[in-house]
Amino acid sequence: MSVQAWTFLIAGGTFALYLAIAWWARVSDTKGFYVAGQGIPAAANGMATAADWMSAASFLSMAGLIASMGYAGGMYLMGWTGGYVLLALLLAPYLRRAGHFTVPGFVADRYGSNLARGLAVLCALFISFTYVAGQMRGVGIVFSRFLEVDVEIGVMIGVAIVFVYATLGGMKGITWTQVAQYWVLITAFLVPAIAISIRLTGVAVPSIGMGSTLLDGSASLLAKLDQLHADLGFASYTQPFEGEWDKTNVFCVTLALMAGTAGLPHVIVRFYTVKNVAAARWSAFWALGFILLLYLTAPAVGAFARYYMLSSLHGKTEAELPQWFRSWQPTGLVLWLDDGDGKVAFYGTRDPGRFAESEIFRRGALNADELATVRVEHQKWIDTRGSAGADGRAILRAKGLAGPDQDILVLATPEMAELAAWIVALVAAGALAAALSTASGLLLVISSSVAHDLYFRWIDPQASEAKRLLVSRAVIGVAVVIAGIFGIYPPGFVSQVVAFAFGVAAASFFPALVLGIFSRRVGGVPAMCGMAAGALFTGWYIIASVYGGMEPWCFGIKAQGIGVVGMLLNFGVALLLTPLFPRPDERVQRLLDEIREPESGAAA
Q: Alpha carbon of 250 to those of 220, 235, 255, 258, 488: distances in Å?
């Protein structure tokens, strides 16, 4: 069977499973819709949390980033893993004891203000819509390659699937669907990684195989990569802080991802779905174990992808291009522009006058007419030896489209290694599971923020249970359409978009939650001013840097790490203003006593 046939079979089977679970888990009350009735077992919630957490960014982009960036790509691995530990130990148990359905609900209760609720809702919506854009982008990539449909149609299919199981079962349906999605995505990630490790080094454990000697006996895989990088003029793959990612930026991005993780509303809400605080802690333990299966394997997958990409493309003629490259060309996600010698070549930073001839760029960034124009201008440039036309590679680079595109590497690696068609299709199904599991969690956050924190709390406090459910489902319908539009017109590649969401979460929610739990003195006005200052600064810096061409003037920190500065600004503004305003009232002091009091047996 062909890859496409296997993809229809495996992806179709998983979609049928998700829809069946949603029908089985459908709910008719708001408690079931928002927090799954608070009856999810700890181990199952750990799997669901892992699936919710391991989005398209973890499945598609993290290994791709490590493949492209080498040592510096590890900042995503360290930041996301460390952030989850920070969330599980520092925030989750206290928020669970507070007993609210949503993060804005806790913020409003702790700071005694509906204005604080509204600000928290705005932050939650911005973070969630930014994050969900990355997931829809991942769905579009998978469908465009493996089902050979337009990216628009692929996104619409994904949107329809998420809409059905999110609206039917709410958090209960999403939770049990995510349990199934976890096993799909982790199997899809590990099977090809193990197969490639055995094929290259004879070692079945990918993280060990990454550092083992290649079967041809020439060198270890990492040493071979370092040699390839040296030959092509790239910075070393394994040496720290070489190239554009210096120590300051690596530190800032890692810390921003850690704090952003601890402030992500769609992850925090998972701890409300279990019976008590003890179950919340155990679900955090289970989730970390499930997450580590993928995160410990990702560096090896990145190294395998980098090795295959360089060795299979560099120096090849048009006739010698590998099948994986030809398979990806129709998607518009990979492009080769000749410089006149008829061979594919990669040139690193040590030869800045040259451009990589294997240019990989974002789908939708150039339409068919624009791409044709680039090709025509490039051919003129070749034919006249530069006196007419323009170097097409320079055109792409000027548009910020220089490759490689991290989002395709995990998907393409099984084809690079010439693995069986069913394994290639399994990876596609895993990528879809990763994207859809996180997208559904984000859509529920959007729904609860609007329906519960705005509609029910502000507009119609007397709304019946049935009316609140109807509004919640309608909000998911609107949100999923917006998410689909982001998938068709993405603002960046998956991990870039997700990193921005983490930056805003670090600058807005994290300080407000930490101060709200551990400080009795900080009141509503200082907290709101801090949230506004941190979120506005971070959002402006990111937009101005990425889309406005602004140079990173703040200590040279790139947009991906600026959330650290926003976080410090948030803490600073809140703490400086605190002495100028009254202490929180007795109700808030009792709330803090309740959530910080050591639990006692089953009463927790």
A: 26, 16, 9, 12, 31
- Rounded CA-CA distance 461/478 in Å is 22
Has residue 48 been placed in a domain?
A: yes
Specify the higher pLDDT residue, 191 or 228. 191
Segments forming the whole domain that contains residue 13? 3-216+227-240+248-305+412-598
Q: Look at the chain and report how many structural domains it folds into.
A: 1
Which domain CATH number covers 467? 1.20.1730.10
**Residue 31 to residues 156, 186, 260: CA-CA distances in angstroms?**
29, 30, 27
- Considering the domain boundaries, does residue 324 fall inside one? no
Q: Which of 460, 530, 499 is nearest to 65 (CA)?
A: 499
* Helices marked H in 88-113: 92-98, 103-111
Residue 11, domain member (yes or no): yes
In a 13 Å sphere around the CA of 442, the CA atoms on its Cβ side amount to 32
Residue 321 lies in a domain: no
**What does each C-alpha distance from 287 to 49, 75, 85, 280, 437 come to in angstroms?**
6, 20, 10, 10, 14
CA distance 121 to 535: 12
List pLDDT tens digits, range 150-176: 777 878 887 887 777 677 767 777 888
Compute the average pLDDT of residues 15-37: 76
d(CA 299, CA 50): 18
The pLDDT tens digits of the residues spanning 302-318 come to: 999 999 988 888 888 88
pTM of the model: 0.83
